[in-house]
Amino acid sequence: MKTTKKVIAVTCSAILCAAVPFSANAGSEKTVTQSGVTTTYANIAEAVFEDSLISADALKASIETLVKSPSVATLHAARTSWIAARAPYQQSEVYRFGNPLVDDWEGKVNAWPLDEGLIDYVDGSYGKQSDENTLYTVNVIANKTLTVSGKKVDATHITPKLLSETLHEAEEVEANVATGYHAIEFLLWGQDLNGTGAGAGNRPYTDFDVKNCTGGNCDRRAQYLMSATDLLISDLKDMLSMWRQGGEARAAVTSDPKSGVMSMLSGMGSLSYGELAGERMKLGLLLKDPEEEHDCFSDNTHNSHYFDQIGIRNVYTGHYRRLDGSIVDGPSLSDLVAAKDAKVDQELSVKLNETVSFMSILKARAESIEAYDQMIGEGNTEGNAVVQTAIDGLINQTRSIERAVKVLGIGEIEIEGSDSLDKPKAVFQ
Hints:
There is one protein chain. The chain is mainly alpha-helical. The protein contains 15 helices and four strands. It has helices at residues 14-17, 34-68, 72-90, 100-110, 160-167, 181-189, 218-243, 248-254, 257-287, 301-317, 333-340, 342-368, 372-375, 381-408, 419-422; strands at residues 145-148, 151-154, 319-321, 327-329. The strands form two sheets. The protein has a two-stranded antiparallel ribbon with strand order 1-2. It has a two-stranded antiparallel ribbon with strand order 3-4. α3 (72-90) packs parallel to α10, α7 packs parallel to α8 and α9 runs antiparallel to α14. The longest helix has 35 residues, at 34-68. The chain is globular, with a radius of gyration of 22 Å. 52% of the residues are buried.
């Protein structure tokens, strides 16, 4: 992996610098090949997943401290580590689309939404049963014996194996999310019962304090939290190995450069349009539903959306700023498009930067005025407009991605759609 560690005058943090408009072709006259572009793409993937693993290790350390010494401070530190861990991981999501190996794996680490009653106690307003999910309120933490698919399961010890092989997506119900970032998020924050009011989940630190236990089963709750975190780290290690030299995911995009370039553009377009603009943003805005947010327990959705967009731009510009401030870069899609049509490259570059700006405004509002779930609420004209502007930016950049595909002349790509954008009336049927 090529990692450039040149000295750069930096006056902002690595996270904030990610928002700075960037053009891969400024002053560049290099010869670019599809092979070089896909190699950069793989190098950035390797760096992103390595940063995700580094931040997950830091999360584990903070969780170990919480479990050992529960307090307001240690719970806050664990929550802060979880939010920090989301920043690099969300920049990897653009690799999910267009790469079957990543897509097949992703459900283990980032599946949502989840039926939290599978994992732990829930508020009475949650209800006691669901026609779609017999495990809706099974509460693994409170029960050492479970029945899954008609078979008795010994849950005396909550282990990574129990979570991944028995409980995750049990009975083929996607909402039975037992692993990954969002299971950990729920355990750290608890349910967000505020609706469109201010505030995230507010689980007390005493839920992990075996000496002054609230919520019951504090030892098992800690056991679940540790097991889910260990599993997350193991899964991230697996994906990182796929992008290392000789890894299967790296080989898939570099052995056939033309196909690899198509995967890159398909990933950018599908995350931009169907997934982010549609399922993650427009759907919630149409329904005015505070539950339709990606990081719903922590009120961190604004960051998830923002870093998804940064990830999209990273792929196009062939430029990624690592957690340590170093840069991974190389021949880019932007170079490839510019060599064919500089105007189309400029158009797409401008639109990617514009959408980063729109997401920055959304992010700033969430951190100073109101959370994302409040922004999409009924009657919030100003908040709704901020979200819609970001959606419009995502849609507009997708149209330019499609133009870039035509300019390159490499064939047709498939961009995922969404009823929220394509057939909005169907959402209410």
